[in-house]
């Protein structure tokens, strides 16, 4: 070859390498060499490699790929259920392909080379292997390359930065890694963070399907970035075990994904109230003052949090005797004022002989060791103790006996009156190691099949929170545990709420919190929140107030800040902001019955309480990328103000009829409205036909009993609603101790007919009034209850009446005594017949 040609060839090779940098070393699966039957599926051999496809249900397909033909043991940290009953799955072999058919899905496997395609019953494409790449492997690493359309939207992936739609703005694509990481002061470009959920939801032409890679190794998701038309994903080891989940409704995808991986249990009600934290409230006098200030200033709150400084020398399960001389007495006093106290517990006991937890853990073989058998230790908080500074050891939470042992340790804390546990640093964070976590050669039990750290890194935090949850459950078998965790993995929603770690007190971090929390919900984590006000740094009064307003729909609502920042409480920014903040928290408490309803739906179906617009409006293109608005349940839309000094806010309302929550005024859906805003503005909208459940402002959830329940009914020709209640604390609901009631309205020219069904379930609350506010019915001429006229009583008289109606602010109000029986209201708005 002459020299210029050689140079050209070199340049071309360089270009080719640049176009597909990640392909080096990857070999694609070859031709199908044998086809064998499997229960509800088919096994395809391709030389040394094998692909197993099984139908778990008509809509859930499991695809496994073993490059060396050997599938790993049946074990999953994430999946708790695979048996959804018998599935009628047919295998049809043809000359050039093999089909696996269920009533809902068709898997077509081309034989030469082996390429996959999953279609639904209508022939819609869910999965299409890239013709060139297919499934591939490089050593122990595995990868798939599936086609993406330009109009696809991709959501989920748990706790990730960036926009709601992971195709990226303008289809720029994105790349995410799954590797739980302590990422202090993360920003919009940080990846990975603390939680790994290798699950995504693809919205394609208004129809959705899910893809779950059940693999706890470091994994990668390239969503159209390396190649615009490709979703490329895989893991660095551990095999390829993927679930393809059809909807086509996006909520059905989440329902099926959480049927596999479990759901967020119903939280204790107090955990849905306002939580106040900082690093750290200490000593006890300061905690007392904090509690008194909430009550004196009449800012509602349920939770007070103790960060690491309550402990003696940062030792798990200890109290600093100087700062907290009598924790039991303190907790009892706070409980009498309606406060629940949550304590932090980190997974890193110091190695110091004489410290009971260390001695017992060592004797029980609970701490992680390296491949050579030596105990692993490294510096974390206990290394900073003023006295007795020591490196820490790390319990092996992938070992059942260790989880049980650790779980027992919470006993004395519960006996003192601790209401919930906060698990931090569980990625785990280890200071002074090259990547801030355990070294790869630390060996874990891995549920009986020892493996090095790479195989279980991403579940360490989840298994820690599991040890906590299961421990609390065993210690108090009839109470709902409350656990908050920083690190977790797919399925971790079964054990703990998640907060998004060390965010920053700036507007960008506030804006980022919305898509992040919504995608956590799409990924099965229904109980989530971000530090209100921001953790790193100090917010202005305006930022704190706007953050609180934006967190109104966050299932977990906690203000928190780092050490040595100024006070970050609702009253810390002067009287004007205090009034704004009080109003935000009051609104949260008014909405608690609706939030509780939504959390019950999350516990039962997996559909998150906090929802992105596309979940309810999958056919609406304008909803697809909307990451500055959100829904609570199906019907309430919040468009918080997210900019400094804002005087107006553009609000997009999806198609349909909408009403302003504050004024009851109708607003057109499918369009954008410009709203003038002030510091107190909380732009809140209600879908036509909605039933919204409200209570009066209470100072804490313990004061809810006997309060009137108000049902706001928004106009629609026909609509339904339902409310769920229980004791808010125990597991009696699982044995029938709940109350569920369905409502139905019909509006026509004659009036509004409202039917309430009899209460289902055995829960009985305290006696109370039941009130209806029928929005858009100001022209009422009379109201009948089960065919008998109710008296009209206005003003104060209405408040006192046991059964009456009135007209207020353009709505008809009806007040009744709340009973369990069915009844029918008729509001006559038209002329007498
Ligand atoms: O190294 O416990 O994300 O919420 O306040 C920092 C102290 C350890 C990190 C958590 C943060 C908490 C802090 N922790």
Task: Walk me through the structure.
With 833 residues, the chain is an alpha+beta fold. 19% of the residues lie in helices and 29% in strands. The chain contains 15 helices and 52 strands. A nine-stranded parallel β-sheet has the order 31-30-28-25-23-22-21-33-32. An eight-stranded antiparallel β-sheet has the order 2-3-4-5-20-17-16-13. Strands 1-11-12-19-18-14 form a six-stranded antiparallel β-sheet, with no helix packed on it. A hairpin with a 2-residue loop joins strand 11 and strand 12 (141-147). The longest helix has 17 residues, at 3-19. Mean pLDDT is 96; it is low at 1-22. Ligand MIG is lined by residues 279, 307-308, 344, 424-425, 486, 501-502, 535, 560. Ligand MIG binds at residues 279, 307-308, 344, 424-425, 486, 501-502, 535, 560.
Q: How much of the residues is beta strand, in percent? A: 25-35%
Structural class: alpha+beta
The averaged pLDDT comes out at 96
Main sheet overview: 9 strands, parallel
Q: Percentage of helical residues?
A: 10-25%
Choose one word for the global shape: globular
Q: Give the total of beta strands.
A: 52
Small-molecule binders here are: ligand MIG
Radius of gyration: 28 Å
Q: Supply the number of helical segments.
A: 15
Low-confidence stretches: 1-22
How are the strands ordered across the major sheet? 31-30-28-25-23-22-21-33-32
State the separation between the terminal residues, measured CA to CA: 100 Å
């Amino acid at each position: 070859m002459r020299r210029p040609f050689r140079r050209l060839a070199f340049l071309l090779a360089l270009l080719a390498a640049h176009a597909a940098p990640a392909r080096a070393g990857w070999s694609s699966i070859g031709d199908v060499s044998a086809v064998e039957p499997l229960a509800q599926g088919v096994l395809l051999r391709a030389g040394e490699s094998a692909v197993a496809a099984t139908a778990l249900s008509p809509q859930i397909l499991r695809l496994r790929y073993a490059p060396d033909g050997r599938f790993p043991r049946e074990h999953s940290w994430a999946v708790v259920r695979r048996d959804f009953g018998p599935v009628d799955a047919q295998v049809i072999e043809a000359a050039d392909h093999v089909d696996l058919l269920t009533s809902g899905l068709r898997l077509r496997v081309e034989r030469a080379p082996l390429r996959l395609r999953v279609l639904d019953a209508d022939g819609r494409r869910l999965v299409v292997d890239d013709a060139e790449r297919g499934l591939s492997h490089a050593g122990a690493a595995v990868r798939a390359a599936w086609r993406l359309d330009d109009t696809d939207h991709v959501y989920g992936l748990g706790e990730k930065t960036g926009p709601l739609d992971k195709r990226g703005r303008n289809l720029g694509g994105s790349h995410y890694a799954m590797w739980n990481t302590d990422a202090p002061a993360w920003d919009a470009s940080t990846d990975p963070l603390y939680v790994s959920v290798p699950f995504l939801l693809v919205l394609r032409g208004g129809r959705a399907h899910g893809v779950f890679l059940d693999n706890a190794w470091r994994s990668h998701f390239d969503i159209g970035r390396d190649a615009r038309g490709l979703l490329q994903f895989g893991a660095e080891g551990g095999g390829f075990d993927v679930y393809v989940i059809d909807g086509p409704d996006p909520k059905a995808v989440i329902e099926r994904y959480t049927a596999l991986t479990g759901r967020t249990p119903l939280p204790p009600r107090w955990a849905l109230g306002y939580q106040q934290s900082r690093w750290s409230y200490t000593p006890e006098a300061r905690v007392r003052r904090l509690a008194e200030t909430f009550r004196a200033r009449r800012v509602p709150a349920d939770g007070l949090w103790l960060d690491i400084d309550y402990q003696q020398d940062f030792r798990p399960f200890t109290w600093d005797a100087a700062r907290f001389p009598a924790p039991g007495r303190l907790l009892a006093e706070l409980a009498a004022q309606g406060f629940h106290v949550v304590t932090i517990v980190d997974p890193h006991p110091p190695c110091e002989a004489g410290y009971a937890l260390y001695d017992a853990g060592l004797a029980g073989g609970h701490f992680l060791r390296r491949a050579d058998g030596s105990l692993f230790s490294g510096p974390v908080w206990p290394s900073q103790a003023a006295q007795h500074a020591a490196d820490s050891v790390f319990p092996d939470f992938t070992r059942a006996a260790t989880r049980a042992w650790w779980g027992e340790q919470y006993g004395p804390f519960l006996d003192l009156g601790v209401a919930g546990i906060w698990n931090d640093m569980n990625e785990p964070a280890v200071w002074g190691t090259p990547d801030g976590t355990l070294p790869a050669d630390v060996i874990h039990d891995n549920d009986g099949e020892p493996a090095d750290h790479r195989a279980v890194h991403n579940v360490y935090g989840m298994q820690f929170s599991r040890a906590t949850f299961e421990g609390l459950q065993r210690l108090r078998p009839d109470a709902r545990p409350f656990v908050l965790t920083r690190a977790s993995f797919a399925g971790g929603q079964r054990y703990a709420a998640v907060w998004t770690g060390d965010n920053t007190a700036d507007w960008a971090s506030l804006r980022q919190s919305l898509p992040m929390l919504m995608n956590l919900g799409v990924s099965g984590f229904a109980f989530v929140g971000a530090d209100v006000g921001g953790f790193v740094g100090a917010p202005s009064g305006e930022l704190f107030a706007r953050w609180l307003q934006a967190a109104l729909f966050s299932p977990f609502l906690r203000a928190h800040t780092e050490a040595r920042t100024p006070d970050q409480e609702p009253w810390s920014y002067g009287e004007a902001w205090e009034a704004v903040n009080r109003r935000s928290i009051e609104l949260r408490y008014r909405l608690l019955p609706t939030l509780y309803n939504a959390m019950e739906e999350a516990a039962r179906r997996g559909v998150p309480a906090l929802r992105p617009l596309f979940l309810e409006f999958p056919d609406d293109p304008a909803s697809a990328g909307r990451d500055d608005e959100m829904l609570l349940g199906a019907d309430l839309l919040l468009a918080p103000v997210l900019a400094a000094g804002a005087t107006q806010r553009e609000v997009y309302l999806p198609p349909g009829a909408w009403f302003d929550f504050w004024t009851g005024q109708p607003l057109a859906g499918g369009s954008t409205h410009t709203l003038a805003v002030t510091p107190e503005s909380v732009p809140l909208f209600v879908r036509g036909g909605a039933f919204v459940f409200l209570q009066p402002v209470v100072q804490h959830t313990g004061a809810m009993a006997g309060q009137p329940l108000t049902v706001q009914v928004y106009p629609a020709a026909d609509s339904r609603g339902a409310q769920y209640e229980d004791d808010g604390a125990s597991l009696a609901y699982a044995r029938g101790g709940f109350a569920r009631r369905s409502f139905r309205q019909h509006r026509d020219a004659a009036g509004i007919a409202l039917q309430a069904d009899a209460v289902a379930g055995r829960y009985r609350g305290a006696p109370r009034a039941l009130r209806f506010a029928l929005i858009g019915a100001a022209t009422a001429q009379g109201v009948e209850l089960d065919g008998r006229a109710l008296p009209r009583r206005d003003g104060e008289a209405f408040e006192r009446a046991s059964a009456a109606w009135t007209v207020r602010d353009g709505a008809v109000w009806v007040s009744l005594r709340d009973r369990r029986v069915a009844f029918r209201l008729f509001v006559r708005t038209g002329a007498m017949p």
